[in-house]
Amino acid sequence: MHSKEIISYLNEIAPNPESWVQVLEEEAMEYHVPIMDKQGISLLQQLVRVHQPAKILEIGTAIGYSALRMLEAHPNTSVVTVERDQQMYQRAMHNIEMQQGQQNIDVIFGDALEKEAEILAKGPYDMIFIDAAKGQYHRFFESYLPALSNTGIIITDNVLFRGLVADASEAPKRLQNLANKIDQYNQWLVQHPDFHTTIVPVGDGIAISIKKKE
């Protein structure tokens, strides 16, 4: 991972976000909600700007932060996002309405592995962003791959898991098990016959998977 000095430097030179972004970041900090850090969200937004997806599927809404930031990067996109925690779902609905994003952001309440039929029916998606239960990344990828458009890309967050995928020997057993699952996902992903995948050591690690041309 990058040194703290470099990350501090990048954060310092970054333009100040809109005031509503700062409000959401403060809410996430106050309620201990994990959201993407400044460099991670910056990369995600840049990928959205480059790819210009007409429709995005986000697995893991939390308080609606990344859905709203993706919409900020490409105001003509529509986002289907799913959240299983009721309190998070309600916070997301509130935050999205506060930013008048409800016309572009469709929030589904429930588990992404149980709402599969409903979510697939709303596809196809030009971008899929996986940022939910880390132990289920492989299942999320395979479940929603059929809904990915031919030119679609899949983004997976937290794939370096605080560096524990490289060495989790000093971590508690629960984190070791999770790091092992993410490592298995990463190895499977980079060897996937249908995708080119690059893992970028930004934020907590972001995997960018692009369909190979047939």
From the structure above, extract its key features.
214 residues; alpha/beta; Rossmann fold; 7-stranded mixed sheet; 7 strands; S-adenosyl-L-methionine; TrmR_methyltr; methyltransferase
What does this structure look like?
The protein has 214 residues and is an alpha/beta fold. The protein has one domain (4-211): Vaccinia Virus protein VP39 (Rossmann fold). It is built from eight helices and seven strands. Strands 3-2-1-4-5-7-6 form a seven-stranded mixed sheet, with helices on both faces. The chain is globular, with a radius of gyration of 17 Å. The N and C termini lie far apart (35 Å).
| Helix/sheet category | alpha/beta
CATH superfamily: Vaccinia Virus protein VP39
Low-pLDDT sequence parts: none
Helix percent reads 40-55%
Mean pLDDT: 93
Sequence-ordered SSE layout with sheet pairings:
Layout: H1 4-13, H2 19-30, H3 38-51, E1 55-59, H4 65-73, E2 78-83, H5 86-98, E3 105-109, H6 116-121, E4 125-130, H7 137-144, E5 148-157, H8 173-190, E6 195-200, E7 206-211
Parallel strand pairs: 1-2, 1-4, 2-3, 4-5
Antiparallel strand pairs: 5-7, 6-7
Helix pairs in contact: 3-4
